[in-house]
Amino acid sequence: MSRIGKQPIALPSGVEVKQENGSLAVKGPKGTLTQPVPALLNINVDGGTLTVSRENDSQEARAQHGLVRTLVANMVKGVTDGFSKTLDISGVGFRAQKNGENLQLALGFSHPVIVTPRDGISFEVGQDVNTRAPFITVNGIDKQMVGQTAAEIRALKKPEPYKGKGIRYRGEQIRRKAGKSAKAGGKGKK
Description:
This protein is of the alpha+beta class. It has helices at 59-80, 143-156, 180-183, and strands spanning 9-10, 16-20, 23-28, 31-36, 41-46, 49-54, 83-90, 95-99, 102-106, 113-115, 121-127, 134-140, 166-169.
């Protein structure tokens, strides 16, 4: 039995679960999410808990068991609390601001970069109190979509290893490299 797959999922009050036509719909205060469920797995709702079980012990059923349970747990968390990812911006002249629902970034290019949010995604822009560095928060109810949007924003200007300029996830460590003068040992020509 899958250690993750056999764990029950607690359903908070206000969350409704419906299963029809091979898909599962989870409705909560923040919205509705749907997920296809493989035919080898069964979703059982008993009171305030939801469990995922498999019909047999085939390789495919065992492989899907823990995955589907985790996806359903993420759906329940998304429709109740939501997900967010924070991106820090570092670099001289690098800025972020909201332009309506869109995100406008100044990343050292000759033009501003406009990021349009997908359905269900919203952006927040702020400034760190201590360092005064700008940051972006990506919010939404779908964990995969929040992560994908944050990755696409980070890919616009990945952090470079010499000065660390660029867009990085909050808490991400950038492996720094020594520059040319530091590599040479500081020896000059004689």
